[in-house]
Amino acid sequence: MCGFTGYLLSNKSWKNSNETKQDLLNVSEGILHRGPDSGKVFLDEENKLGLAFQRLSILELSEEAMQPMISDCRKWVVVFNGEIYNYKALKENLLKRSLNYGTNSDTKVIVECISMYGFTKTISMLDGMFAVAAYSFSDKNLWLARDKFGEKPLYYSKDINNNFFFGSDIKSLGSSRYFEKRIDYNVSIDYIRYGYVPDPLCILQNTYKLSPGTILRFNHEKKIQIDEYWNSFLEFKKSREKPYKGTYEDALEEVKFKIKLSTNTRLVSDVPIGAFLSGGIDSSNLVYSLKKDNVNIETFSIGFQDEKKNEAHFAKEISSLLNISHNEKILNNSDCINVIPDIVKYYDEPFADPSQIPTFLLSKFAREKIKVAISGDGADELFGGYPRYQNISNFWEILHRFPEFFKNKMRDFSFFFSGINMKGARSLGKKLRKYSHANIESLYNDQLSRCRPDEGFYQSNYKSISNFNKNFSFNKKVISNYRYLMIRDFLTYLPSNLLVKIDRASMANSLEVRSPYLDPNLVKFVWSMPDDYIYRNKVDKAILRDILSERFSKKIYARNKQGFEPPLDLWLKGALKDWAYETISKNDDILNNEKLKSLFRAFLKGEKKLTYKLWSLI
After folding, report:
1. Which ranges of the chain have pLDDT less than 70?
2. In what helix (H) or strand (E) does residue 131 lie, and over which residues does it extend?
3. How far apart are CA 507 and CA 465, in angstroms?
C-alpha cells in the first residue's frame, strides 16, 4: 500500500531536470501519509516523465520492492498502490519461463507480467485492490488502471498544453508547479446534492477519477483512450441470466466457503494484521470465519459515550465468545471534535459523511498495534443491508402506474412548497416530490440525496455526467427492481462514498484496509443467488445472519443495522454551534447564505432531520 503521483510534460513545460526533481519532491509531501516508510522520485528527461512514490511497506520489506520499479527488459517503469492477492500464482508462471526473480514483491510480479503479456492482459489477470501506472519506453505510451470495484483511488488530468497528470490524490497533483488548480463549480452541485463528489467527477476542473474496472492509455500523440476490462453491471447481468439453482442451504455453505477463501487470501502480509469488529453482521461474519479456520488476529472497535450511538458492547461480546484478543476505545465528544480539522485535510475533495470521523479514529487506534486491517465494506450492497432497497422498489411498483401529467404537476408543486421557509411547507414539498419521478433511477437518486433539486440550493436544470445519471437497460424478468437498486449502490454509493471514506481515513493513519466481501468470486456468486436468498422472510442479509446463528444468540444475529455515526446533532447544537454559524455566514458564490442561516435556526429549534443537510452545506 502506497501513494504515487506522476506526469508527462510537454517540451514547452519541462524546464530542466533539477527543477522537475524538486517539484517531484514537493509533490511527495502530499502523499507522505500514504507511504511514510520510504520514498523515491524518478525522472526521464528524454520522455519528459516524472514519478513520485511513497511506500507503506507491507510485503517484502526490503529495498528490493522499492518503486518506481523498472522491468528487467528495461522497457517499462511502474508505480503501484494496493495489494495483489494472486501474485504468488502469477509469480510461479513467470518462474516457469525462467525469469530471474530475486524478490517477493507483488510490484515485481506486475512489472514483469506487463513486460511479458502486455499491460491490458496483465491487468485482467490481477486479483486485488490496486491503482497502477506504467510507462512504455518503446512506444511512448502511458497506461493507468484501477481495480474492479474502486477500492484504490486514481485521478488523472490533461491541460491545454497537453501536460498529463495522474496520482493517488489531487492534493499532491495540486502541489506541482506545473498543475493549474481551479475549482469546478458545476461539480460542486453534485457534492451539494449527495454529500460527496461522485465518480468519475472531481472537484477540480479538467480532472477526473478513473472509473473502477477501466484502463486508460495516453499515447505519444497526446490522446486519451479509456477501455473497460471489467464492467460490474454487465457481470451482474450475466450472473442474473444464469442464476444459482441450488437450495438455500447449499447457497449458505457456498457463501461460507467463499468468505473463508477471500478472508484468508487477504491475510498475506509481512507486518501485523488485525480486523475491525463493530459488532454488526458484516464484520462479525469475517472474524467468525477466521476463528473457525483457527486464525487468531486481534480485533479493534470504538464506541461512543452516547449509548444510543454505541455498539461497542456487541463487539466485546462477540470477541469474548470467540476468545479473541480485542481492543476497544470509547470516544468522548472532544476526541471526535478535535480531529475534524485534521480529517478535512486528508479528504482532498469535499466529503460530508460524518462516519469519516469515527472511521479515522478507529484507524488511528488500530494503527498503534497493526499495519493491515480486515474490514466488512461491501456487504450491505451485496446482501441487501439497506432498507431503501425494499422501500424504493415497493413504492415504485405503485408510482410507475401513475400518469405523466400527474407526476409533472407533483414536480411543480414540490418546487413551490419546498421553496417556502416553513417546516410544514418543506415537509409537504418533500412528500410531493416523491410522486414526481418518471423512472426508478430518479427516485433512487433522491433517496441518496442530501439536498434535492426542489429545495433550491442549486440550479435544478444542471445536467450532471456522474454515474448517478446513468440508466441501464435490463430484462425485468431476470433482474428485479430490488436487485437493480442494489447494483446501483454498488456502482455509485460504494465507490464514491464508502470506499473513499475507508481509504482516506485509513491511509491518513498509514493503515492498509482490505475488504474480503469485494472478492470477485464471492461477488459474482451472490449476484447469481435468487432474491429470496438475500431477503428472506422479510429479513435482510438472510444468509449472513443464518451463518452467525450457528454460534451466537438472536440478539447478535437478528439485530438491526446500526450506522457508524457520531452524535452530530448534539455537536452542532453544542460545541460546534458557533463554528457552524460562522461558516455558513461567510459569503459564498454557490450557496444562498440567508437560506442556510434560516435552515440552521430551524435546526436549532428542533428540526433534527436537517442535521445531515446542514453538515454537507457547512
Report:
1. 1, 98-102, 589
2. strand 128-136
3. 29
